[in-house]
């Protein structure tokens, strides 16, 4: 039986490390000196076991140098926790926050906004069926009936689960939804054999597949039925008002890091893996599933130009239909602010 979604939602990732450095061609990043005068440090939320191209700049303290202040990278377990920390003032920027928990929080009145797209991924967030239960796309309606499904509540993994099962004709009241408490807990539940399926993102998915599990639907198959999965860069609205140059500089450094990765991924892999707390092999397996859209792509209609807003509306309307939340907003346009991204420079990718 599905549990009611709370608005304080839990959210919702080869050893070739050689090669020369790619040098992105760009103009200087916007100065953050004026805004930084009132800040002694910047607190940024991120996920462990979720390798991203910008982590080279994180490790090498490129952000610190560009901003002229210490940048504290603080690991979080969920996008919902990131939103709570932004509400309390403990976090200034959330990097790679899940779209769904963000949408849940602004629906309930949180003053947050999206300023960029961090990463697009489909296969890196999924539900893995335990081999003992024989669950497939063809028989999910029968094999999941009366069984336990271990999954988060209120994040994109939860949304994907419900949309996938609806598509497969599964009665959403026919199984027991056991709320997940992070990727490690999902793996433990899966390995115990007590659940027919467990849902997670990042390294947890890879571990469960390595333990003999199977995907009920692949990420590509889910995309084909309209399920889009991506993470965002978000901030408290007031932080953007008070420190616009800091936000722009952060986005500029991120753009340059993404371009360097696109030009020579091999040179970045070991550093990214270390920052993510993973082996190079495990990190690369996730990076193979990731794409990091550049500034122009993010500003296009396919992303922040309209689609991101539409996806939030679709997700929240779906949760209303399922009885998970009381109501959705009429529009989510007000929660996407492209001003900062529009003010930074494009970066040319220079192939190594």
Describe the structure.
By secondary structure, the protein is an alpha/beta fold. The protein has a six-stranded mixed sheet with strand order 2-1-3-10-4-11. Helix 7 links the parallel strand 6 and strand 7. This is ABC-type glycine betaine transport system substrate-binding domain-containing protein.
In summary, what is this structure?
It is found in: Periplasm. By secondary structure, the protein is α/β, with parallel strands linked by helices. It is built from 17 helices and 11 strands.
For this entry, give a set of tags.
D-Maltodextrin-Binding Protein, domain 2, alpha/beta, 2 domains, five-stranded mixed β-sheet
Q: How is this fold's topology laid out?
A:
Elements: H1 33-36, E1 41-46, H2 55-59, H3 62-67, E2 70-75, H4 79-88, E3 93-98, H5 99-107, E4 112-121, E5 125-129, H6 140-143, E6 148-151, H7 156-167, E7 176-179, H8 183-192, E8 197-201, H9 203-210, E9 214-215, H10 219-224, E10 230-236, H11 237-242, H12 244-263, H13 265-276, H14 280-287, E11 290-291, H15 295-299, H16 307-321, H17 339-342
Parallel strand pairs: 1-2, 1-3, 6-7, 6-8
Antiparallel strand pairs: 3-10, 4-10, 4-11, 5-8, 5-9
The pLDDT mean sits at 90
CATH evolutionary superfamily of the largest domain: Periplasmic binding protein-like II
Tell me the span between the first and last alpha carbons.
53 Å
In N-to-C order, the SSE pattern is HEHHEHEHEEHEHEHEHEHEHHHHEHHH
Percentage of residues in strands: 15-25%
Give the CATH architecture of the largest domain.
3-Layer(aba) Sandwich
User: How many discrete domains?
Assistant: 2
Radius of gyration: 20 Å
The major sheet is characterized as:
6 strands, mixed
Helical percent range?
40-55%
**What structural class results from the helix and strand content?**
alpha/beta
CATH class of the largest domain: Alpha Beta
Here the CATH topology of the largest domain equals D-Maltodextrin-Binding Protein, domain 2
Count of individual beta strands: 11
Stretches where pLDDT is under 50 for at least 5 consecutive residues are 1-31
Strand order of the largest sheet: 2-1-3-10-4-11
Number of helices: 17
Structural shape: globular
Pfam families: OpuAC
Domain ABC-type glycine betaine transport system substrate-binding: 43-198
GO molecular function: transmembrane transporter activity
Protein name: ABC-type glycine betaine transport system substrate-binding domain-containing protein
């Amino acid at each position: 039986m599905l549990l009611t979604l709370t608005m304080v939602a839990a959210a919702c990732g080869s050893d070739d490390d050689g090669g020369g450095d790619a040098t992105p061609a760009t103009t200087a990043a916007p100065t953050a000196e004026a805004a930084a005068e009132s800040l002694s440090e910047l607190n940024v939320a991120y996920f462990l076991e979720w390798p991203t191209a910008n982590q080279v700049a994180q490790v090498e303290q490129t952000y610190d140098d560009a901003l002229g202040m210490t940048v504290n990278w603080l690991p979080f377990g969920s996008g919902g926790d990131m939103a709570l920390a932004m509400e309390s003032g403990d976090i200034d920027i959330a990097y790679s926050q899940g779209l769904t928990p963000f949408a849940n929080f602004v629906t309930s009145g949180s003053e947050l906004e999206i300023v960029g797209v961090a990463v697009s991924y489909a296969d890196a967030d999924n539900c893995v069926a335990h081999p003992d239960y024989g669950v497939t796309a063809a028989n999910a309606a029968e094999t999941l009936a009366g069984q336990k499904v271990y999954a988060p509540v209120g994040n994109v993994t939860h949304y994907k689960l419900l949309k996938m099962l609806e598509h497969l004709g599964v009665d959403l009241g026919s199984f027991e939804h056991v709320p997940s408490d992070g990727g490690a807990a999902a793996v433990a539940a899966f390995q115990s054999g007590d659940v027919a399926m467990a849902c997670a993102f990042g390294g947890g998915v890879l571990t469960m597949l390595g333990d003999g599990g199977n995907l009920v639907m692949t990420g590509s198959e889910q995309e084909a039925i309209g399920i889009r999965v991506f993470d965002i860069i978000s901030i408290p609205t007031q932080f953007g008002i008070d420190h616009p140059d800091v936000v722009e500089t952060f986005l500029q450094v991120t753009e340059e890091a993404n371009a360097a990765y696109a030009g020579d991924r091999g040179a970045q892999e070991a550093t990214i893996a270390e920052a993510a707390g993973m082996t190079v092999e495990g990190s690369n397996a996730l990076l193979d599933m990731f794409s990091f859209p550049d500034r122009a792509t993010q500003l296009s209609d396919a992303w922040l130009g309209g689609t991101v807003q539409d996806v939030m509306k679709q997700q929240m309307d779906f949760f209303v239909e399922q009885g998970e939340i009381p109501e959705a907003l009429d529009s989510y346009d007000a929660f996407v602010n492209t001003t900062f991204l529009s003010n930074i420079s494009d970066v040319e990718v220079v192939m190594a």
